[in-house]
């Protein structure tokens, strides 16, 4: 037993020299017994945690872009396991303890970075009654640079090309293909009208029981219609879109992040209609296949209702019941707004570089 | 930093002398900073894992009942965190890495014990086409001693008292109050008709959007009508019911247990109608408040439909797509049948001791 453990330890440590992401990729090929030994090897676990701390320090203290990519590559791999079906042949392959350790260190750094960007004054001093808080939060969202971002409301609305639409939809794969599962997770342990609001939103995502109306199916049709296949998405996917996707997953997966998640996804629902309006207009201007725009067209109306319900039945009552919840909800909203802005800024730059805006426009 | 870590280590180790459950209870009162130091203290983590191994060895190798109770008390505490809302004041309290380590060792022992009770011949040699597999599995369920258990089909049907009904409903709190969330978890990462089947089952649990029809609400009404309050439930709750509840949570929480979960909850759905028929008959024989039996009465019909859909749209297609899935599904079904039998055997003994069967019957 000791020999086996020692052997596994050496194995894990050898891979560790290649980095945190290399360790996670190596875990994919380990047998159930090897994984068990590695989980039980707390020398290896401590070394892996130290490597995670060193990685996040390079990413966030030193501003090392490659390290930042490794942080988010590692988190994307971990979340992909949480949100996807596992083959029956791997039912005894237990990677959770090691992955949870890694995720804990990386998530703390990612969220810590986002929280440091938010001025305390922007999340305190808010109204303490639910309805007034909701009005306040809506103003915070619309006043933020991400509230009416030029990518949607100028570039796409006025002269977005089909290449731009393809590039945008490729980035949206960071959230939309798992939004139903995110809602399913958010409602766990909640009660009453609050739970029902999220449940009904989930059921809408599932086409209200109509297979042809399932939103992930409609979103796939949009990708297909615009020619964004998996090779294209892999090639063109921006780090900033990956960061948004990772934070979405992080906040949904743990019960303790619920209040931040409620603010975060409240922003998503609230901004979707105005943003999707610009996507639909650009799509139709290019006379693209209507089948590909059903998803976005549908969400203009549906998400207006979802946002209204989210504010009325989730956010308002949470704040009325405990005003202390207002700060965490606002933090979540600000995290979404800031990361959305980063991502749209980068994407807009990329669109402008890829297809120069006609002079004189 | 080292001093702090060393200090926390000593703290954790002091508590560890009192057992695994004491450590988990102690975590409830730790500050966010203390929890962080304990998570990063791999000496403490290794000692805690060793304590978990020692505990499961006493429970399962030595047959120590107190140790078995501690194993399941610890798991119940961990799962309760996963299935319940966390206060906003604890959003920075990260206990997941430590709890996942503990759960991993305990779950392996609990599932290992159940798997050793299942003869390999009972889960292999099954048909390889979906529809034939379903027929085979239904026969396995009905032929098992839990398929027509005397608690329901003799004791309760013929002379179950209101005390018996109260005792039974108290045990059912191990699963029913979180069945909606279990379905929400099961459907994560699935697709097509399989995902829709579980989604529709979830939406049924949510009263199809009608607050008064939410099944957890109806179940609470049943508890209230029969006088099973939380103090009564705490006092009368059987270890065997806790084991069932823990295995239900374990199989639902991890993607890699999906196939076992599908077999496990397939049994639950398939047996509910015939079992609930007996509960409803006993309830009405005692002329109890009808409001309390809506839940069980409803499920006689609803779960017949759910079971049919579960077999047709989930189990059948999984086996047709990959016959290797059949073994894991059957293992899950057998785990449910065996633990259900244990629990019903113990409960029936308790009912008979509590209210002796009239002689001559």
Distance N terminus to C terminus of chain A? 72 Å
CATH superfamily of the largest domain in chain A: Heme oxygenase-like
User: How would you sum up the major sheet of chain A?
Assistant: none
Q: Number of helical segments of chain A?
A: 17
The average pLDDT score of chain A comes to 93
Instruction: Let me know the number of strands of chain A.
Output: 0
Oligomer: homodimer
What's the Cα radius of gyration of chain A?
22 Å
Derived from helix and strand composition plus strand pairing, the structural class of chain A reads mainly alpha
CATH fold description of the largest domain in chain A = Heme Oxygenase, Chain A
Low-confidence stretches of chain A: 1-9, 356-361
Largest interface by Cβ-Cβ < 8 Å: A-B, 58 and 57 residues
Assign an overall shape of chain A: globular
Number of domains of chain A: 2
Strand content of chain A: under 5%
CATH architecture of the largest domain in chain A: Up-down Bundle
Helix content class of chain A: over 70%
Taken in chain order, the helices and strands of chain A follow as: HHHHHHHHHHHHHHHHH
CATH class term of the largest domain in chain A: Mainly Alpha
């Amino acid at each position: 037993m000791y020999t086996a453990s020692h052997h596994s330890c050496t194995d894990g440590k050898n891979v560790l020299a290649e980095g945190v992401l290399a360790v996670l990729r190596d875990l994919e090929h380990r047998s159930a017994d090897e994984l068990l030994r590695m989980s039980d090897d707390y020398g290896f676990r401590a070394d892996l945690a130290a490597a995670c701390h060193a990685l996040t320090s390079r990413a966030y203290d030193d501003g090392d872009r490659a390290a930042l990519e490794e942080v988010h590559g590692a988190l994307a791999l971990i979340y992909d396991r949480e949100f996807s079906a596992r083959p029956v042949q791997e039912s005894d392959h237990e990677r959770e303890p090691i992955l949870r350790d890694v995720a804990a260190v990386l998530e703390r750094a990612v969220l810590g970075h986002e929280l440091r960007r938010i001025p305390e004054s922007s999340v305190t001093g808010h109204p303490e009654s639910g309805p007034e808080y909701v009005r306040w939060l809506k103003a915070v969202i619309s006043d933020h640079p991400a509230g009416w971002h030029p990518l949607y409301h100028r570039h796409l609305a006025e002269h977005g090309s089909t290449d731009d639409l393809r590039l945008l939809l490729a980035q949206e794969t960071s959230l939309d293909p798992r939004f139903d599962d995110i809602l399913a997770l958010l409602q766990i342990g909640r009660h009453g009208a609050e739970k029902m609001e999220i449940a009904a939103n989930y059921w809408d995502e599932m086409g209200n029981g109509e297979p042809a109306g399932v939103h992930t199916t409609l979103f796939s049709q949009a990708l297909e219609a615009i020619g964004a296949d998996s090779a294209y998405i892999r090639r063109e996917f921006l780090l900033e879109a990956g960061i948004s996707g990772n934070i979405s997953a992080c906040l949904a997966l743990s019960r303790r992040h619920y209040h931040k998640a409620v603010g975060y996804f409240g922003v998503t629902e609230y901004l979707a209609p105005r943003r999707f309006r610009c996507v639909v207009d650009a799509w139709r201007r290019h006379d693209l296949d209507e089948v590909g725009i059903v998803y976005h067209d549908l969400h203009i109306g549906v998400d207006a209702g979802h946002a209204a319900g989210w504010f009325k039945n989730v956010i308002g009552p949470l704040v009325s019941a405990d005003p202390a919840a207002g700060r965490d909800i606002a933090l979540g909203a600000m995290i979404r707004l800031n990361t959305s802005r980063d991502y749209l800024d980068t994407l807009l730059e990329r669109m402008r570089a890829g297809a120069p805006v006609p002079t004189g426009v």
